[in-house]
Amino acid sequence: MTRRVSPTEAIRTEIDAVFAEGRPLADCLEDVARLGARLIIQSALEAEVEEFLGRARYQRTDAVTAQDDDGGGEEPAGQAGPVVRTGHRNGHRQATIKTTSGPVTVARPRLRGTTEKFASRLFGTSVTRTNALESLVIASFVRGLSTRDVQNTLAEALGSDAALSKSTVSNICQSIRGEYDAWRERDLSTITLDYLFIDASHFRMHPNAPAEPVPAAWGIDTDGRPVFIGLEAAGSESHDAWADFLKNLLDRGLVPPLLVISDGGAGLISACELVLGRSLRQRCLVHKSRNVMSKVSLHDQDQVKKGFWEIFDTSELGLPPGQRLVETVQRRIDDLATRWEKTYPAAVKSLLTDRSSLTAYLRFPAEHHKRIRHSNFIERTFGETRRRVKVIGRFPGETSCVSLAFAVLSRAASGWRGFTTTPATARQLERMRRDLLHPTDAEVIHLAPRPRVSLTKAA
Questions:
Q1: What digits encode the pLDDT tens for the residues 364-377?
Q2: Of 279, 299, 363, residue with least CA distance to 327
């Protein structure tokens, strides 16, 4: 007989279905936030029932008793075994909690055959509303990594009747922390990336301290699938901090990618040159555009911005990816610089700084160009994280901060679109991989030390 799906598993399935709908990421995250609140409350309710009965779902009373008997000897002092009660689960009934973001419906468990009445500490007898939904999603789900924080937050949100026991809160929090810990230590040797995107967002994590960066890395593998591979807290965006972040990925078995896409931070650029020196490097065009526009008056910004993006519009050139296309776009950069160098010399200087990295993407398959020329994709997800953080002002520590980012990004990753990979595309990328990452012995001799100009060599 097939077992019924538990309410928590049903909610997780709903979350996966949201990302499978193909809607804009921001819309998906709003729905996931509501489902996340349901998941928190539902998990707490089911943990309460398990604690009350003294056994897990589908576990019989005699099985628990036998398990206890197999241990042999007496319980250590102060560690009494679970209280096993008679009775059994008898389905659920719907209960609605009103929130400032709309009603949240959960399945309250029903029990039969118990000698003692079960009363949920989460709901108490009359709790039917919560504070802001974000209070549950952020404070319970993330600050909840501290048992005391979860207890205090739920008490504030739902009243004194919501004082969950330490064991219930601990089980929920340990599950969240364990998921992140296992993810950040997992082996990456089975992943081969064509493209690696790197970015960071800043959050306040420590008292009386400015916002600190949280670097993230994700990529597209050789099958065109998106892969979320790295997330850590860092004290700064210095060369050493970024180098440690990237080296950790390689130490866990990650094969260097063909192309690294990032912003223009000096520490990140130098770290990429050190750790991923054989990979090509693409400067994020969105970040470069912002840098240039910040040095142009409002009166001319529309015109300069239009000219900037026209540089990289290659749809009518009729040139295949490669050196000729790169040279053509580089001439366009010169033309725009010549046009504005007298009016906005600072903007032109910004445009020409690290200019070779603006066209590295033009060596790759044309159908990938619009998605590998910037690292802006993950910023939308980071923006959602920052918006929710405003509810609590700052995190109580690095673990809580990184766990929130992981909770949002890892779930969002299941809805990221991959790349189309045709046989011709795969052959082109494989040739580039051989030339860049697996040179002949003769090439190795001539590439030590390897000059930076080689980052823009033809594929």
A1: 999 999 999 998 76
A2: 363
**Identity of the residue numbered 343:** T
What CA–CA distances, in Å, run from 55 to 89, 91, 342? Answer: 11, 16, 77
Q: Which domains does the chain have, with CATH numbers?
A: 7-56+85-182 (no CATH), 186-283+375-459 (3.30.420.10), 285-373 (no CATH)
Cα(329)–Cα(321) distance, integer angstroms: 11
| pLDDT per position as a tens digit, 372-429 | 999 876 666 666 555 555 544 555 567 767 776 776 677 667 667 788 888 999 999 9
Helix (H, G, I), strand (E, B) or coil at 282: strand
End-to-end CA distance of the chain: 58
The 3-state DSSP class for residue 230 equals: strand
Q: Enter the DSSP assignment of 366.
A: G
Residue 428 CB partners (closer than 8 Å, separation 6+): 321, 364, 365, 459
Give the pair of three-digit tokens for residue 413: 């990753």
360/292 Cα distance (integer angstroms):
19
Q: What is the largest CA-CA distance in the chain?
A: 88
What's phi and psi for 298, nearest 5 deg? Answer: -55, -35
Nearest Cα neighbor of 51 from 101, 122, 141 is 122
Please provide the size of the chain in residues.
459
Q: Is the distance from CB of 232 to CB of 184 less than 8 angstroms?
A: yes
d(CA 213, CA 200): 6
* Nearest residue to 260 via CA among 124, 347, 245, 120: 245
Element (H, E) at 44: helix 25-53
pTM of the model: 0.64
- pLDDT of 178 reads 72
CB 15 within 8 A of CB 411: yes
Question: CB 245: neighbour CB atoms within 10 A?
Answer: 24
Closest CA to 404 of 244, 156, 207, 176: 176
